[in-house]
Amino acid sequence: MLSHLPILQVILPLLGAPACLILGRGKLAWLFALLVSTLSFCIAATLLYTVYHHGVISYALGGWQAPWGIEYRIDLLNAWLLVIVSGSSTISLLAAQSSISSEIALDKQGLFYVAWLLCLAGLLGILATGDAFNVFVFLEISSLSTYTLISLGPNRQSLWAAFRYLIMGTIGATFILIGIGFMYIMTGTLNMADLAERLPSASESPTVFAAYAFILVGISLKLALFPLHLWLPNAYSQAPSIVTTFLAASATKVALYLLIRFTYTIFPSEFSQFIIPLADIFVALGIVAVFSASIAAIYQEEIKRAIAYSSIAQIGYMVIGLGIGGVLGLQATLIHVFNHALMKATLFMALAGIAVRIGATTLTSMQGLGRKMPWTSFGFVAGGLSLIGVPLTAGFISKWYLVSAAALAGRWPLVFLILLGSLLAIIYIWRVVEALYFKSAADNSPVKEAPLTMLIALWLLILGNVYFGIDTRLPVSISYEAAAALVEGRP
Amino acid sequence: MDTTAMLIDVAILTPIIAVVGILAFSKKPNLREAISLIAGVTLLAINLKLYSSFNHGEVLSRQWLEILPGLNLSFRVDALGLLFGLVASLLWPITTLYAIGYMRGHNEDHQTRFYACFAIAIAAVMAIAYAENLFTLFIFYEVLSLCTYPLVTHAGTEKAKKGGRVYLGILMGTSIAFFLPAIIITWLVAGTLDFQQGGIFPEQTPIALLSLLLVLFVFGVAKAAVMPFHRWLPAAMVAPTPVSALLHAVAVVKAGVFSLIKILVFIFGLDTLQQIPVSDYLLYLAGAGVVLASLIAMRQDNLKARLAYSTISQLGYITVGVLLAVESGVMGSAMHIATHALGKITLFFCAGAILVASHKSEISSMVGLGRSMPITMTAFFIASLSIIGLPPTAGTWSKWWLLTATLETDHLILMGVLILSSLLNIAYLLPIPLRAFFPGKQAVSGPVAIHEAPPAALIALCSTALACVLLFFFPNPLFELVSQIFSEGTP
Asked: So where does this one cross the membrane (chain B) (predicted)?
């Protein structure tokens, strides 16, 4: 049983989805989805533990050995991401029932959980598989279910947002497919480890170079890397609030994983070092993303949208870490992937709680809520402090590592640009804090605190932000080992 | 485990426990204030016990936990820390006593939040005072900025919100943009952040890098209010007077200069500091700040604003003293922390007492007030003498040492600056009590009879005024403490 964990990780939510359909709608479907997601999280945690102590797990699907059969390969990198994705799914699902009750019609709620589990299965599949074509298959599963989830949003604009994301996402997925196809033409294999062995001998060929370019652009679209980010603010702000919580904490992280996987373990290192100056491109795009998105966030009236822009900025930081490179740069990125999932989930969870009670998350509608919903409002403050990078929160650890990486590489201007970026975060977080606590509400009708399950989920996340700002052994040691393995194992 | 060293934990946790009590009894004001007072007296007793153990040559150090590899949250008692810890813990119960009179006399709202945030700020001050390394100091430095923000914006008005924005913007902005990178670079260069006698930088560290770090530190520690990053202090004056008294004349600003002394003496080391050419420029910048702030203070009609600029000027004395990089200068600076604290807190107490009793905040309207408030005005007179540095008050001693240090280093211009500023002190402080007692012909008496402030406030301001005088006649304990800053083994 234990040896089958890599595939169970994916199969469980994949089979859970149709089962959820049978269970109908309402609470039962919710409980079932929550159970499936929790089990997935337990499997992911077990996998991470096993990989950390006993090394890489390779699982041959159906007993067909790689490179002929499909291999599921779990190393520290994807085990780490599996925990993040399944964890954020579980904590969002915990709050989902109370949140969607006000946003989604009852007859669609069952389908909502089906789409959710499919999306989870797709994301986990992308992470777990060691087969390039499988990546595409799971990417489509997760993307299609994501479009569905977004289109379930409360306003009619959500259909438009989902459609725009569908167009952009499909272009991205097609690019990735073309890239994978080109690689298959040149090497005759789809297994990642096998590709890594065979690609260097074909690295002179323009076909492989084209494959590399297609894949990079395709992934960057899914990652919402500047300037391919235009779909993200609409999709995040129009989706049901709890879907935004889940997607912000997981979807872009998976795309980032693909970026790391393709540049570090599959393609020969001369591609990213000599043929195109990828490191410089990453740093430059990252910086532009940080500043343009942070400034855009400052001017948003709709706060879900502001925080969505902040996600684009934070993706910028992660890409900067990749661009700085080395073990420390990669480690900074991997730590920030985890911490960013924590802080963004906290922020969007608090906004989801507010949306349930007052039906909007515009700056004016949130005025004076600090008095009326103190527990929920504090969640936004705590997530915001972590985002700014105040000591004793997870965000501080991210910033420490990113700045250390930049300073150690001797890139002084970068050090100050990174820190200037977090000053912008103070501005867009604080205008919300001021609205929450210093403005008095337009109408003085009493507002209740967010529903209990949402508060529990929110406070678990707040405690997570504080805990991982103080006891950093888990993210620091795992990210270090993972980064060292990636840098050493580079073909 | 050393039980005396555990007292450090108790010192930091006592105010935190008080917070729990304050929140628990938010509906019973008498009990709530009693808890604050008891916690204050307990904290003073703990600090006195630490002081006596330290004098017996005991090494007191505590390690809490490792936040990042090699970076601990740890504490250690040394002479400078004791000085700061004793001053803060002596003045906390007195300020609480004063606050009871002031807050009730003024019918302020949200008193529970006020006392709770106040206690958290004191806990942060204790942690800063006894921090063993720069990392620990930085963490609680940021905590102090954040927990005093609700105190600054206490009134909740538009003006308070603006003041809070400037306050947090400058303090957080400088600490993120300058202080944090300086710490990270120091960590990368020196491999440690522990405060050590003689500094931690290896000998071959390039002077250019040291100069950069020195500038970053001096501007990054904006709590020391070195111009041009001083604007937060006048902005913070919108807070209730007890906050201005303890936090913005003692705890927060002294945490700034205390950090600066710690960094310059135990991270750079005086020998290294003398070799850095840029320290001369900083010295003259601080000197210019001393005179400029005094000149601005003369033009302020609002009493609290005048006192705020006077504080900026006096903090400049401390910064100048350390930057001179001789032992007598550092000792003078350390003593000035204590003597200025006593003097300035008395002045703020008086300003608050006048506000409560007569609702006057402008100096021009205080003419002739000595008849109705003789005790307050006498205390004001004594404290003014101490700030100016005239006998028989404590300020004499610290100014004496600072002037000696300028002579010792042949900085005659700076000596002139310090003397000039003291003359300006006379010009902007003494007229206030003198015209209160001797209004001359333009005697102004209000239509309503004005009485002295509430007794709780009077007791507080008399005891600090008395302390100013006592410390002049019995300065030996203070001398002995500051002369141990450079003795072997500390920190």
From this structure: 6-25, 34-54, 79-100, 112-131, 137-154, 166-187, 207-226, 246-269, 281-298, 307-325, 337-357, 369-391, 411-434, 455-474
pLDDT for the residue numbered A491: 53
SS3 A59: strand
Cα gap A48→A474, rounded to integer Å: 11
Q: Are A92 and A246 a contacting pair, CB within 8 Å? A: yes
pLDDT in tens, A69-107: 888 889 899 999 999 999 999 999 999 888 888 888 878
Is residue A267 within 8 A of residue A199, CB to CB? The reply is yes
Q: State residue B137's pLDDT score.
A: 93
Partnered with residue A74 across adjacent β-strands are: A57
Q: Where are the domains of chain B?
A: 3-483
**Nearest in space to A121 (alpha carbons), one of A221, A235, A44:** A44
ipTM: 0.86
What pLDDT is stored for residue B442 in this prediction? 60
* Cα–Cα separations (whole angstroms), residue A392 to A464, B116, B135, B295: 11, 20, 11, 40
Of B168, B169, B188, the CB nearest to A407: B188
DSSP β-bridge partners for residue A217: none
B187 lies within 8 A of chain A by CB? yes
Residue with tokens 């006998």: B391
What is the enclosing helix (H) or strand (E) of B294?
helix B278-298
Output the average pLDDT for chain A: 89
- Report pLDDT digits (tens) over A156-173: 888 999 999 999 999 999
Rg (CA), chain A: 21
B68-78 b/e (C-beta count within 10 Å ≥ 16 → b): beebbbbbbbb
pLDDT in tens, B185-232: 999 888 888 888 888 888 888 888 899 999 999 999 988 888 888 888
Query: Rounded distance, CA A227 to CA A207, Å?
Result: 25
Low-confidence ranges of chain B (pLDDT < 50): 447, 490-491
Confidence (pTM): 0.90
Query: Could you give the CA distance from residue A428 to residue B176 in angstroms, rounded to a whole number?
Result: 16
Return the pLDDT at A25.
66
Q: Mutation target for A interface from B16, B23, B26, B68: give the one with most A CBs within 10 A.
A: B68
Contacts for A192 with CB less than 8 Å, ≥ 6 apart: A71, A73, A130, A131, A132, A261, A265, A266
Q: Which helix (H) or strand (E) holds A73?
A: strand A71-74
B70 touches chain A (CB under 8 A): no
| A390 φψ region: left (φ > 0), alpha (ψ -120 to 50), beta (else) | beta
CB–CB of A9/A40 below 8 Å? yes
Listed in sequence order, the residues at least 6 apart from A71 whose beta carbon sits closer than 8 Å to its beta carbon are A58, A59, A60, A61, A129, A130, A131, A191, A192, A193
- d(CA B350, nearest CA chain A) in Å: 30
C-alpha to C-alpha distance for B189 and B185, rounded to whole angstroms: 6
Find the CB nearest B161 among A416, A434, A470.
A434
Give the residue-averaged pLDDT of A283-289. Answer: 93
pLDDT tens digits along B362-389: 888 888 888 888 888 889 999 999 998 8
B74 has which bridge partners? B63
Residue contact B176–A400, C-beta within 8 A = no
For range A263-289, the mean pLDDT = 82
| Neighbour count for residue B359 (Cβ, 10 Å) | 12
* Start-end of H helices in A359-393: 369-372, 374-388
Pairing of strands A71-74, A57-60: antiparallel
CB contact at 8 A, A224 and A174? no
Q: How far apart are CA B473 and CA B397, in angstroms?
A: 10
Q: Tell me the three state secondary structure of residue A350.
A: helix
Tens of pLDDT, residues A194-231: 888 888 887 778 888 888 889 999 999 999 988 888 88
**Residue B402, token pair as written in the block:** 């600072």
Among all residues of chain B, which has the CA nearest to that of A431?
Answer: B165
